[in-house]
Amino acid sequence: MKCAYVYLEAPASLIEEFPLPSPISRWTFPASALNSLPAFFAKAGLSESLIAKILDPKHLVKEGAFVHLLPPLAELEGLTPETRAVIYTELAKYPENEYQADPVLIIGTTVDEWYKGSRLRPEIVSKIKQLSYTRGEATAFSDIPVLLNYAQSDSEARVIFKACTRTRNLMIRLKLDKSSNAEEIIKYWSFGTGLRRKDLEPLVRSIIELDSVDDLGIVHVLPALARKLLYTYPGLDMAKHGVMPDCHWTSLNFFNYEPHEYLLDARLATSQVLEQFDPVEPPYQFADVLFFLDNTTGDAFHSCVHLADNIVYTKNGRNILSPWVLMRLEDVKKIYLYKGDGRVQGFRRKDIAAEKKAAEEVR
What we know:
Structural class: alpha+beta
Number of strands: 15
Radius of gyration: 23 Å
Distance between the termini: 28 Å
Number of helices: 17
Strand order of the largest sheet: 10-15-11-12-13-14
Helix content: 25-40%
Shape: elongated
């Protein structure tokens, strides 16, 4: 496989559907935690004077069960990455802090490389570097509202917001030539059984025989639905069922020509796994579903589909600004296992496993 990284950003048509966030940053805590915040901020590394300023009544709004802190811009920009990491890790526990709970994650490269080729001015990229912090093995960025203070126009504000949807993913081509083992290639990418063989064999054999073509985009060997969705963002029409597709819908629909919408229901998705899949250990094969499980509860908080060589097909989040992409499994782990309280468990469809076993017994 020949791999190259490409960067995707949400299309302008989607960005236009979203109101830009306020340029005023907001930290939301449970109102019950208000009295403990001075000690928490001190432990995070804030000075007494800065704590007093952040908790000043003019920078604090109480609303029902929550209290919203509005840290002044200069003080917010002056936080060290270490202090920012401590505070934002706590804020991430509450969904009301959407940018801390779901930050921009820069994995396997630098901020400069991540935004190379984007439409961001160098000053904005420098500001992202200044406001970034470490989350596990990734560089995280949560201060989108701060960036909007530096937008020179409404159009640039949207360029900034669009750039914050940027994701890195793999573009992969299979190298094929006359020395390639057509039978083994077809067998692997058709689940190793008769499934889908008729769809793959003519194309693979024809490319191997040609002198002028020596590779094949991996999208051409994926099942129909994955082929349709890869490198795209969900359309607004996908919200018609009241909830957007997530990782589990993506993984369990991998085999289907048309999506089974009942898989939007977590209970029914779990039932399908229990009834139709068996757990498997590495090395994983094509179409094995990899579930990220909580070590304590056993609950699955993410899933993806293994393709080959620890490259997976995944959708990282239910939101509309999360595309379907290909990633290295090690990078997906940096997103979901950074707390150290989870593990990956592979599952294989029972019918595929049974056919493979029967084929091996015949040989």
